[in-house]
Amino acid sequence: MKRLFFLLVFVNIVYFFWGMTASKETLLVKQQTPLYNASKLEKLLAISKEDAAQLIAEQAYSNQESEAKKVELDKECFLIGDFDNENKASESAAVLNGLEGVVSIVPSTVLEEFWVVYPADEDWNQSLLNVEQLQAKGVTDFWLVPNGTYMGTVSLGLFITIDRANKRLGELRKKEVEAEIIRREKYRYSIKVETKGGIELIQHYLRSVPVNKKNSIRKISC
Question: Which CATH architecture has domain 76-109+187-220?
Fold first, then answer.
């Protein structure tokens, strides 16, 4: 009986130490299990100096683009006035010298006009004879163009609608005058200002403009 008792005690001791060892190994295995998914990790690759320099340059360019877009968002655009011709717009724009921003002259409106004319001849003397013939037929409202592209042309009226031009043409035909209509585009101009100073800064510069030459200011999209 004693032998059996000691045998059982020995077996229990061996089983106890075996259990402790197995538990430590299991704990060690669990602690060594990685906390990430290796298949999803980004691989780091070695690159040459040239490739590294290119990547740095691309990043710098991207940063410059971001800064440029930020400046573009801060910018405001305005149109000043409505001028008959580009020279008048340029004269008015001169008072904006010193304004921080971009000042330019732009066509703001395109108008169509209809010009009733008696065609020009290559010979100026013949154009003078045309004037005499028109006067002989009772035409008194005219103007002989003295120079430029239409030199020698006899102007018989300028109209903003084709109906009024055709009416004038009909009146001349009754007097046996073979005139014609020239369709032209006429531009009006404005001053475009691109600035970050706002409308108040523009108004400050325009204070020196005489009252009779004041022009409207309207904000537009850039």
Answer: 2-Layer Sandwich (3.30)
Q: Which residues contact 144 (CB under 8 A, 6 or more apart)?
A: 127, 128, 131, 152, 153, 154, 155
Query: Residue 220's closest CA among 39, 75, 54, 113?
Result: 75
- Give 178-219 pLDDT, tens digit per residue: 999 999 988 889 999 998 877 887 887 777 666 455 678 888
Sequence letter at residue 75: K
Beta bridge mates, 193: 78, 103
Domain with CATH 3.30.70 in the chain: 76-109+187-220, 111-185
Residue pointed to by tokens 């000691």:
6
Residue in the block written with tokens 């006899």: 154
- Spell out the residues 6+ positions from residue 78 whose beta carbon is closer than 8 angstroms to its own: 192, 193, 195, 199, 202, 217, 218, 219, 220
Question: Which tens digit of pLDDT belongs to each residue from 20-46?
Answer: 555 544 444 444 555 556 566 566 556
User: What is the biggest distance separating any 2 CA atoms in the chain, rounded to whole angstroms?
Assistant: 161
Give the whole-angstrom CA distance, residue 142 versus residue 116. Answer: 10
Q: Backbone phi, then psi, for 60, in 5-degree steps? A: -65, -40
The architecture in CATH of the region 111-185 reads 2-Layer Sandwich (3.30)
